[in-house]
Amino acid sequence: MVKTFGSKATRFGFGEGLVELGKKDNKIFVLGADTVSSVAINEFQNNFPDRFANVGIAETNMLGMAAGLAVAGFIPFVSTYGVFASGRPWEQIRTTICYSDLNVKIGGSHSGLMVGPDGATHQALEEIAIMRCLPNMTVLVPCDVTETKKAVMAAAYHNGPVYIRYGRESIPIITEETTPFEIGKAVKMKEGKDVCIVACGSMVYEALSAAEILEKEGISARVLNIHTIKPIDKDAIISAAKDCGAIVSAEEHQIFGGFGSAVAEVVVGNCPVPMEFIAVNDTFGESGSPADLMVKYGLKDINIVAAVKNVLKRLFFLPLQMIFSNSTLIH
Fold first, then answer.
1. Distance between CA atoms of 207 and 196, rounded to whole angstroms?
2. Any alpha helices (H) in 217-258, and if so which ranges?
3. Helix and strand numbers, DSSP H then E, in the chain
4. DSSP state letters, 62-82
5. Is the pTM of this model over 0.85?
6. Which of 91, 141, 175, 235 could form a disulfide with 200 if both were Cys (CB 3.0 to 4.6 A apart)?
């Protein structure tokens, strides 16, 4: 069994991190968009009411206000559901914040499929893609509540705009206070030599579970927790490609443009190896329990195991294909 330390929703790590920052630094200012308690920023509001504003259902205005606060020397954090934090005010994020490289921190809560019964309109499955394509934007996808708190603390003093993606549903806690966290540096969760599973967010636990299943079948899988999608840890990915010879990426996000695409860009440009992708396959989600949705859309450990076996088959047959191709050319 994967070693865990209980379970808790990552949104609470975001809220806890803000409260801790607020106690230390009076430049921390938080903005909410009506969904204050559900995204766990209510404790900051209770503790520091003079550094908090609930703007209501006006996300574009909220990002504009955050930009103004950054210009005035504050370190503003905004938080609402990921689909509204990223999609609705995207033009303000792009032109007002990123173009000017302003020090605004954006919290995208309730992201991914595990927002569950709220359905497709509230399931943010595209925001890694639309955030990482923006110049100057840093994108963080922590794997549990402990790492989310660390991400908030690190983001506060990381110069420039930062997007932090986290969720509503309780998920296993797989890191400790002593687990290192540095923006741009992957964390090796498990050593392995036959294949590397690279994962972010909720899928890190599924990757570790898949690695345990594979180990029982004689397959040694390395697991990397890549909590920073941008700037991504190129060295860790290149090392994994060279050492293991095959990669499987896993994310709770659309298959196009997200985490897997970011990993593939590194692999193709530096050490091309066979790669498989675990992600939502170009479809919207639906209403349902988080557990059922993760099964339906193929985001479980068994799906990662199947992808590993597929990529290893490709790795095995690649030399034969090269031989066949070369012999064809000779004749």
1. 10
2. 234-244
3. 12, 14
4. HHHHHHHHHHTT-EEEEEEEH
5. yes
6. 141
